[in-house]
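Record type: ASSEMBLY
Status: queued
Input:
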Amino acid sequence: MTTEGRGLHTRVLDTLGLAITAGEYPQGSVVRTDEVAQRFDVSRTVVREVVRVLESMHLVESRRRVGVTVRPTEEWNVYDPRVIRWRLAGSDRPRQLRSLTVLRSAVEPVAAGLAARHATPEQCAALTEQALGMVATSRGRRLEEYLVHDIAFHRVVLNASGNEMFARLGDVVAEVLTGRTHHQVMFDDPDPAAVTLHVQVAEAVREGDADRAEELTREIAVGALEELDVLAP
Amino acid sequence: MTTEGRGLHTRVLDTLGLAITAGEYPQGSVVRTDEVAQRFDVSRTVVREVVRVLESMHLVESRRRVGVTVRPTEEWNVYDPRVIRWRLAGSDRPRQLRSLTVLRSAVEPVAAGLAARHATPEQCAALTEQALGMVATSRGRRLEEYLVHDIAFHRVVLNASGNEMFARLGDVVAEVLTGRTHHQVMFDDPDPAAVTLHVQVAEAVREGDADRAEELTREIAVGALEELDVLAP
DNA sequence: TGTGATGTAAACGTCGTACTTAATCTGGGA
DNA sequence: TCCCAGATTAAGTACGACGTTTACATCACA
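Status: finished
Output:
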């Protein structure tokens, strides 16, 4: 599911990253490059490149004479899509899912408001299309198909906002929605109210009603948070 | 100012990252590792590690036989603090500053609202302290000192929100405020209205008034956006 | 006995070379 | 004209050597 890239590098990176984010190496614990090289049966060159990437994510810190030490959670680059995926696959998924959903609840309403002002006709069409797709797949245990439309919908909104930082959260939202559908006990069918709200957001954006688009999206976010409260401990 | 790390690696990474984000290498253009190694007078090993990091930021893509190609802007990991710093130092600073300020305007009000609910007494004290510091340095061309308090203030709010994703935006906000102060033509003294608002936010958080904290922070954000409209083209 | 200077070794940092792999180009043949 | 095989090229991988930093222990001195 995860290892999209080929090459030794990817395998080691994914395994180590997953292990670290899962807390297998507690904060401050030390990993030595030789050890890792031996454990994965790769050269130290490969390990060093992996370490450099983990270092760039602020997951670890490499210091001479002491080794590669795991940094405290608060310093991790939690916006890196890979870190997000690792953490959603790991043990503290509920906490992570909640953090991300709160972030969405802050960002997406504003993005929807901007989208209502800036969306191109093509984007409006795409939005309506995805909303209809959600309606069509909202019954009969077709969660997988629904998920595709849901992700596409939110991606279009974020892109249509015209703000680059919002647009780049598309991947984050995709990970959240995917994680929610796959990993969590979810209802058999999505909440009908949420489906309706999506259709209405598409409407509001098409009509250029920024306030309404923002408010409706806020309702979607509130719904998502409440759903999380019900389904997560 | 930038090169905090030591070692050859950092120098090459910073230089290349800056060049790429500045658009010196247009999208799709190719860089060869041997070339870079020669240009910086380092071994290919060092260059490869740099490339791996740039690849992890989605700035470039490395493929056999073809070389290291620069990816389109839309795919960059723009939440990486280093990418942000590079771009703020580069040519499209105005656009970047605007994107980031819009992001702040979405996130910080919600964070302030949460902070009003969750802030510890220590955090409330820190908030008040920083707000007073802002007042004390708001006159007499003491922008540098003001900046320190401003950054600290917003960092405390984001941390006090209790949401990890918000907390990690502290660095982003710091970069934005620093970039705004250093790179941009700024008024000699900060806007008095903004200073007052910060004091009031500290009050609202202390009193646990979430709605007021949120609304006041929203006003700060609106002010920042308007200031940007005035000072940036 | 306590404290500071000194030495040592452990780990990462850098380098050069050699080999492997795969994408692209080229040219010959059907 | 089209297609396939081999040559070419640049990154991927591996290995071994040496350099550099620095935590830690040891020892000398007060």
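Annotation: The beta strands of chain B are 30-31, 60-63, 67-70.
Annotation: The interface with chain A takes residues 9, 45, 48-49, 52-53, 56-57, 73-74, 76-82, 95, 99-100, 102-103, 105-107, 109-111, 114, 163-168 of chain B (CB under 8 Å).
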